[in-house]
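Input record (one chain):
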Amino acid sequence: MNSQARGGQPLSDPPLRIEHSLSDDLRAWLTAELRFPVLAVLNDEGRPTQSVMWFDLDPDQPDTVLLNTMTGRAKFRWLKRDPRVSLCFEDRYEWVALEGTVEIDEDSERGMATIKGLAERYDADPEQFKGEPRATIRLRVEKVIRY
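The corresponding structure, as predicted from the sequence alone:
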């Protein structure tokens, strides 16, 4: 592969910042507007698979992101098998990837409370989830990659 871009300029890695926790300024960026991050999990074949998610930041644990899923989905099974994930946020040319390990809280009452809170945050009708078996996904952030 050619290591030169068009015009003869050498290719290089972008200026990435690596951190190991969610700083206050990053938490502010994540919540400054409604964002729709993409969650990458590993399927049964070990291949990454992605889904757009709703999220919120845990107010009690500063390095934890809250997500939610139905318990019957493939994503739920894959997360139980391999809890390593990446969650990517973008804003045109600025992006942040959060890597870490998830814990799945299968308590249906807490799962329903989480999805209802997310629905309100994302201006959706919380009642549309009534009766669904839900689980809360708690992503403990271990690495932050910022560009």
